[in-house]
Specification:
The complex is a heterodimer of chains A (970) and B (131). Chain A contains 34 helices and 25 strands. Chain A is of the alpha/beta class. In chain A, strand 19, helix 25 and strand 20 form a beta-alpha-beta unit. The longest helix of chain B is centred in the last third of the chain and has 14 residues. The chains are: A alpha/beta (970), B alpha+beta (131). Chains A and B meet through helix 13 and helix 33 of A and strand 4 and strand 6 of B.
Chain lengths: 970, 131
């Protein structure tokens, strides 16, 4: 027996990187190279090529079982105390049917954003349920499909107020009863908009300056008080000031909704609707507003439209706002959502229904009431007399002493100041927990009662004027799935409508839809990771902290940077954070005037949007005929603005899928003229182990952990966008007002720019995914992944080039990890547009590639390293077959208007109808390729009409009778 | 796509019709054709001012959101409120019912610098050929 034969058999890289060594050589030869390495040498410019990458830990890669053991060790270092901290994060019972069938189910977590509506009706329905939950509970008619967190949702609302008043009033007032992290995130964001944030006690709020665009209040307040805002809202409106209310969904099941006070915008987090705290996230935040401001609402919005047969169908509304974000005119850069978490929250509401939610709320309120009464009886502390929902505020002589005593009973309380404590109750609190709290507060004295014995004496603390009267969640969907069987089947019914990575490759250019391995996903639902409050003392989260340290180190090695912030919750949030770091750096040097940002025209739309949010002036530079950044134009722009140059934003390899030769020169030009280089990490999957942003010359870069580092797309979020920086920028990395944090590894000096997200380490719960991916792949596996991603793209480009023009290539004729095929010619020859090809691909069982970006009229394909040669071939076969269908139109054998592409997709309802009037056969429409005979994914609607839905925006569930009406009128 | 006689055109594809002291502004047939079906129009308020080559609003279609630049400077005296309910007028009648704003020009000389119908037709042809 050889030593090799007895080595562990559960190594990971060969499970992630699909191509075997033999296949790699075969594919490289097909592309005209004798080996994968010679293809890579011809593709990645020598001047930026790394010799090798070596990790200080996990360099050889852990096996899957070793990885699980390591995560078990880390989990054991986290101590789960009972949290009464509140502040926007509450423990919740994740219904196990939702935990297993959504959160742990790849058919829900590997889906892409629902751009292709016809194969996304399931999660679109669930997201519409979410929007309906939000509009019903807040009492405002329009909601988006979720935002990143409560803090950033409040900041988005602040920007809306500024826009509503057209930038004419530059003060935003925040009441001091808001969560501290919300206040801090708004303050950071206000900077770039040149807004002044004034925090003020509610009773001292003053609009007399005439310069106030909006005011933010919390309901219930961060310390628990439930106030009647009716007069407050009237007064604000009388002064021309818009009112933003941060609120709590569970409280709104029993409290008068903000819409009935006249609030203009309502924000909050849906976390306590069955989404774990997860040491900070991910969670779905929400933003609701009136009809009047619906077109100013940031984020994704799901709307109702009709399909080609006039049936009701759902799709993302106003998509162009997102895809073609208004560059320098943008006031928000948000381009994702928290779909998976919004779906979980919506399902929680579906499962419990209005009565179930209300009884949870009443139970929570009851326990808080018992606690309040008990403390009064004990006479050891003074309980705040204002009405409360779930949070009791206590004045005592030594808050820290009580918190320390609580800690000994594994209880976390919120210490507001040296004499003030709050305790927030939640769905998981028990009578037993309340008894434990009594013991803590009695500090050794006997407690002459039990929580249970007090219950009959407790009065509802909510005054009748603030009691909710209006009904909510009256739609049948919230009233029919209350048993586990019913919900299980509803979840599976929706899931079966949606194409995910469980079915086939999703080759979206710039999105890196790679494998989300099971071992990577497993720790995400372990209680030692899920049940920790983000503001729990750091000593209780040592497992998390060790992982952050290790991950920071690994990411620094991968990127060539010196320090990382894990706070930003999405790629665009990372862009914004990175630019704010650059801004803070210039300011620290007295260069307040450096505000010019150069951005190539080919950049992601979020780039200029992020720069605009930092108050930067954008100068656009063009590309040459080969799609490369025009270096001379960059030089001219940099030199002309050398006194005011702040930054360049650049994506590498380029958004055109090419390793540009001059990237190091571009970085030099920017540095020579006093600017910093921001690299957009969207295409990092083509760099890992081959080159790095730091090595190329960038100063800061964000990583889309949900692309390159395996966090699943979740059907449209969560994402994660940590930023890495060089030493000179490290002091400015974001911190947090409750739990101070900063760069990892920690820099010597710190001068943080403020908070970017509500939680100190962003969506900490999903970091184990990226961490385990890197640790299991090791440096060699990761480098191979980059090489195979490039090989796969080149193999596909080679197979397709005889059928479609491949738009851009590098100097040696190769492409990077993605490539663009040009469909523009077909508009004239066959009347065919990219949408027709994407919709026809659905009939072949595939999700279309990225459409019309970065070049209109094209498709961008990114296969990733995790797709096998067999799958690549199947996708190429489908595209080649579609090319033949286009040829039939070109030759006049098929009608220009009425053909199998224009008619796509073909759902069963169309194919099985008694009448069939199309000029092609039903069988060919449904089974154009042999593999479809044995197994086929069926689109559930005909082509969805975008115009109809965008002109008539409906963003909540319609009563059933109106659904029919909509179909008839269409 | 059609180009009308008697109108002036900007290279950002807006048209101006100057009658007495009033100039009516909209987007051209060529522009609406490239945008596709318009679903929403954002317009300025009456009595606000617009400046030459500066954005005064935006058009959202299912393909793109585009800024509309004013071909001339002046004061907005009327806004086509029908577009709020029926944005499709821009597609069906770009030069008539789909007009956007009426402006009192502050420097009528700016009109002279705009293109005439022939020049604009050529401009569109060249621009299409370049893509």
């Amino acid at each position: 027996i050889s030593v090799d034969a007895v080595k562990p058999s559960d190594t990971f890289p060969r499970r992630h990187n699909s191509a075997t060594p033999d296949e790699q050589t075969h594919m490289a030869k097909f592309c005209g190279f004798d080996h994968i390495d010679s293809l890579i040498d011809a593709t990645v410019p020598k001047s930026i090529r790394l010799d090798s990458m070596k990790f200080s830990k996990f360099d050889a890669g852990l096996t899957e079982s070793q990885m699980i053991q390591h995560m078990v060790d880390l989990a054991s270092k986290n101590k789960v105390f009972k949290s009464f901290i509140g502040m926007g994060y509450y423990n919740t019972h994740v219904p196990t049917v939702i935990l297993r069938n959504i959160m742990e189910n790849p058919a829900w977590y590997t889906q892409y954003t629902p751009y292709q509506a016809e194969i996304s009706q399931g999660r679109l329905e669930s997201l519409l349920n979410f929007q309906t939950v939000i509009t019903d509970l807040t009492g405002l008619p329009m909601s988006n499909a979720s935002l990143l967190d409560e803090g950033t949702a409040a900041a988005e609302a602040m920007a809306m107020c500024n826009n509503i008043l057209k930038g004419k009033k530059k003060t935003f007032v925040i009441a001091s009863n808001c969560h501290p992290q919300t206040i801090d995130v708004c303050k950071t964001r206000a900077d770039g908009f040149d807004l002044k944030v004034v925090t003020s006690d509610l009773k001292d709020i003053d609009y007399s300056s005439g310069d106030v665009c909006g005011v933010l209040v919390q309901y219930p307040g961060t310390e628990g008080e439930v106030l009647d805002y009716a007069e407050f809202v009237k007064n604000a409106h009388a002064n021309g000031v818009k009112v933003v209310m941060a609120t709590d969904l569970l409280a709104l099941t029993v409290l008068k909704p903000p819409g009935e006070f006249g609030a203009d915008i309502v924000v909050g987090s849906a976390q306590r609707f069955g989404v774990p705290m997860g040491y900070g996230g991910p969670h779905a935040a929400f933003l609701a507003t009136s009809q009047e401001y619906k077109r100013m609402m940031p984020g994704r919005i799901i709307g109702i439209s009709v399909d080609s047969s006039g049936k009701q169908a759902l799709r993302m509304a106003m998509q162009t706002r997102e895809q073609h974000i208004r560059r320098d005119k943008a006031t928000s850069n948000i381009c994702t959502a928290q779909a998976l978490l919004a779906n979980m929250a919506a399902m929680y509401a579906v499962y419990h229904g209005p009565a179930g939610l209300k009884s949870i709320a009443q139970r929570v309120h009851g326990l808080a009431g018992i606690f309040s009464l008990g403390l009064n009886k004990l006479g050891v502390a003074e309980v705040q007399e204002l009405p409360f929902f779930d949070t009791v505020k206590i004045k005592c002589s030594d808050a820290h002493a009580i918190a320390d005593a609580a800690s000994k009973s594994e209880i976390n309380l919120r210490v507001v100041d040296s004499t003030t404590i709050t305790a927030s109750f939640d769905e998981t609190t028990t009578l037993d927990d309340v008894d434990k709290l009594f013991k803590v507060f009695a500090s050794g004295k006997p407690v002459p009662f039990t929580a249970e014995s007090l219950a009959p004496e407790v009065q509802n603390s909510i005054p009748s004027s603030l009691t909710r009267e209006s009904p909510y969640l009256t739609h049948p969907i919230f009233n029919m799935y209350h048993t586990e069987h019913e919900l299980l089947r509803y979840i599976h019914k929706l899931q079966s409508k949606d194409l995910s990575l469980c079915h086939s490759m999703i080759p979206l250019g710039s999105c890196t839809m790679k494998l989300n391995a099971t071992t990577e996903m497993m720790p995400v639902t372990w209680p030692s990771f899920t049940d920790i409050h983000p503001f729990a003392p750091v000593e209780q989260a040592q497992g998390y902290q060790e992982m952050f340290e290790n991950l920071g180190d690994l990411l620094c090695t991968i990127t060539g940077f010196d320090s990382f912030s894990l706070q930003p919750n999405a790629g665009a949030a990372g862009e914004y954070a990175g630019l704010m770091v650059i801004r803070a750096y210039h300011m620290s040097r007295g260069d307040h005037h450096r505000n010019v940002c150069i951005i190539p025209v080919s950049a992601h739309g979020t780039n200029p949007a992020s720069a605009a949010m930092c108050g930067m002036k954008i100068i656009t530079v063009g590309t040459d005929a080969k799609g490369n950044i025009n270096i001379e134009e960059v030089r001219k722009a940099a030199e002309a603005n050398k006194d005011n140059l702040a930054a360049l934003m650049v994506t590498y390899p380029s958004t055109h899928g090419v390793y540009e030769e001059g990237i190091d020169e571009i970085c030099n030009i920017i540095h020579e003229n006093g600017g910093q280089v921001y690299m957009d990490g969207a295409n990092m999957n083509a760099q890992v182990g081959l080159t790095s942003p730091g090595f190329i010359g960038a100063d800061v870069c964000h990583l889309n952990l949900h692309k390159t580092f395996c966090i699943p797309h979740g059907g449209g979020g969560p994402g994660m966008g940590p930023i890495g920086v060089k030493n000179h920028l490290a002091p400015f990395l974001p911190s947090h007002p409750v739990i101070p944090t900063g760069g990892i590894p920690q820099p010597e000096k710190t001068a943080p720019l403020g908070a970017i997200s509500a939680a100190p380490w962003g969506s900490a719960l999903i970091l184990p995914i990226s961490y385990t991916y890197i640790a299991m792949m090791g440096s060699g596996g990761l480098t191979d992944a980059s090489k195979i991603a490039i090989l796969n793209a080149n193999y596909m480009a080679k197979r397709l080039e005889k059928h479609y023009p491949v738009l851009f290539r590098g100097v040696n004729g190769t492409v990077a990890h993605e490539f663009i095929i040009d469909l523009r010619g077909f508009k004239n020859t066959a009347g065919i547009e990219p949408e027709d090809v994407a919709k026809r691909l659905m009939d072949y069982g595939f999700h279309g590639p990225t459409m019309s970006w970065p070049v209109p009229g094209t498709l961008m394909i990114e296969p990733t390293e995790s797709e096998s040669k067999a799958e690549l071939d199947r996708f190429c076969d489908a595209l080649i077959s579609i090319r033949e269908e286009i040829a039939q139109i070109e030759k006049g054998n098929a009608d220009v208007q009425n053909n199998v592409l224009k008619g796509a997709p073909h759902p069963p309802s169309l194919l099985m109808a008694d009448t069939w009037k199309k000029p092609y056969s039903r069988e060919y429409a449904a089974f154009p390729a042999p593999w479809l005979r044995s197994s086929k994914f069926w689109p559930t609607t005909g082509r969805v009409d975008n115009v109809y839905g965008d002109r008539k925006l409906v963003c909540t569930l319609l009563p059933e009778e109106e659904q029919v009406a909509a179909a008839v009128s269409a | 796509s059609s180009v009308l006689e008697g109108l002036k055109y900007a290279n950002s594809h807006e048209w101006v019709k100057h009658e007495g002291s009033v100039a009516t502004i909209g987007i051209t047939d060529h522009a609406q054709d490239h945008l596709g079906e318009v679903v929403f129009v954002e317009l300025p308020e009456a009595n606000s001012s617009v400046s030459k080559e500066k954005s005064f609003g935006a058009v959202e279609s299912v393909k793109a959101t585009s800024e509309i630049l004013s071909p001339i400077s002046g004061e907005v005296i009327e806004v086509n409120t029908k577009l709020t309910e029926s944005p499709g007028l821009i597609n069906s009648s770009p030069y008539e019912d789909g007009w956007m704003i009426k402006v009192k020009p502050s420097s009528p000389a700016e009109l002279e610098a705009l293109m005439g119908p022939k020049e604009y037709t050529k401009f569109c042809e060249e621009e299409d050929a370049a893509h």
